[in-house]
Amino acid sequence: MADAGPQALCAREPRVPAERLVAEMVPPPRFDSVRFDTYNPDPAQPSQSEAVTVLSGFAAGLGGAHASGAGKRRWFSKKPAPAAGPRGVYLDGGYGVGKTHLLASLWHATPAEPALKAFGTFVELTNLVGALGFQQTVQTLGGHRLLCIDEFELDDPGDTVLVSSLLSRLVEQGVALAATSNTLPGKLGEGRFAAADFLREIQGLSAHFRPLRIDGQDYRHRGLPEAPAPFSDEQVAKAAYATEGASLDDFPGLLEHLARVHPSRYGALTDGITAVCLTDVGPVPDQSTALRLVVLADRLYDREVPVLASGVPFDKLFSEEMLNGGYRKKYFRAISRLTALARDAKPLVSQ
Length: 351
What we know:
five-stranded parallel beta sheet; three-stranded parallel beta sheet; alpha/beta
């Protein structure tokens, strides 16, 4: 048994200083060791191999001096003419085709010290602007060689305008850009490819991006067994007490707690947690709660924290109305990621 009982996420009230938001703009732990040569293209999807080739060349092209100079040297550097061709790339594909793997690989492959590269989700970037202010964020990121933005939130018009304005300023200072995005509300169809939406919503920035479509099925379930069925409350609690660093929470209570914690702090909410154990998992009651759960699922997946649960299977979390609505891509991504984490948690029951 663990030396002490499990922790409770519901008992945590994390505070995240602005300095941490800046320092954490690097690929998350799950993607810390990924590289282009660890990406496994599906032979049936040639666009995946093409993406590796294109992005490798894009990274190599960023090896020169910063377009406006870098750091403290900029004040005496003569600003050169803008580089020819797009200074940005947009990875266009469905959930689970490896966009984040490729985005992180681009960050790692770009020949610049980590302090001159930034990687974060759209939500993390908007949180940075909120913490530092617009002008300070421009100054903080303006000397960077590359900014990677995962899951650009096209479904929030206000934040889209804010971040588009920020990116325009950064492009003026020579920062190269790379992004992925979700699907706009009301864009049902495939619910997968969003390049036209992305380029339209960022308006004046569209000329700076080359869309790169990546076809394929969700790799997290390609050739893998189905996710394990939920366990009993007793099994989940026993595993939580037997696992050092695990948390144990009632799912309805956790959903209520998430409403009191800003999504920018969901990563800090899981600091030091080795496994998340949840009892009484059930359908999410409304869309606001569902979107908060999506953010938590992303943070847990990034940090490779297994999730052991009792109650309903994770593919029953969201209603049919939600899965057919404008945020369907987010919900399917959350199901995909939670399923992968449930598979990771299965060995905890046998401990």
